[in-house]
Amino acid sequence: MKHLVSWAIRTIEVTITALMGFMVVVVFTNVVLRYVFNSGLHLSDELSRYAFVWLTFLGSVLTLRDNSHVNIETVVAMLSRRGRLVCMALTQVIIFVCAIAMTWGTWKLHPLNSTMLATVSGIPMNWVSDVLGVTGICFAFIALARLFGILTGRISEDEIRAFAGQGHPEA
Predict the structure, then answer these.
(1) pLDDT tens-place values along the chain, 171 residues long
(2) I want to staple 161 with a disulfide (CB 3.0 to 4.6 A). Which of 47, 57, 166, 168 is the partner?
């Protein structure tokens, strides 16, 4: 299972890197074409914007995995170990419910978004909006894994400290 998780994380990291590289190349090429050759790529703004949307949402998956999302660490840091675990479990339940809602909503809107086309490129908009479903599925798995770890007592002290804002666990 750890091998599958590390493969998935590595895939997300490589995808984010590729998206960033794509954005840099497309925008730089467009700038050079506009200022040197007085022409440009019509698709550059739209495609780089869509790549940025995917990059942002995939990055949020890595952020959730590392417990780096916004937390109310001041309050959590004052709690006992048991209080932190209860707070962490409640947080994971809320994240799971929101992730399922996000995934379900994406699934329900997929047919509509597939009929709507981007203005310049003509790309179906579900290619952009489906990142919400991917993110929701990843969030749900991360929340379930943490909840399972909390309920079975397998959660590490490093993860509890990271949740309380007292350091981040090694990835």
Answers:
(1) 678 888 989 999 999 999 999 999 999 999 999 888 888 888 888 899 999 999 999 999 999 888 777 767 777 778 888 888 898 899 999 999 999 999 999 999 999 988 999 888 889 998 889 999 999 999 999 999 999 999 998 888 888 887 777 765 554
(2) 166
DSSP H helices in the chain: 2-36, 44-65, 73-78, 81-115, 126-129, 131-152, 157-163
CA pseudo-torsion sign 133, 139, 145, 150: negative
* Max CA distance (Å), the chain: 65
pTM metric for this prediction = 0.85
12 burial level (CB within 10 Å; 0-12, 13-18, 19+): middle
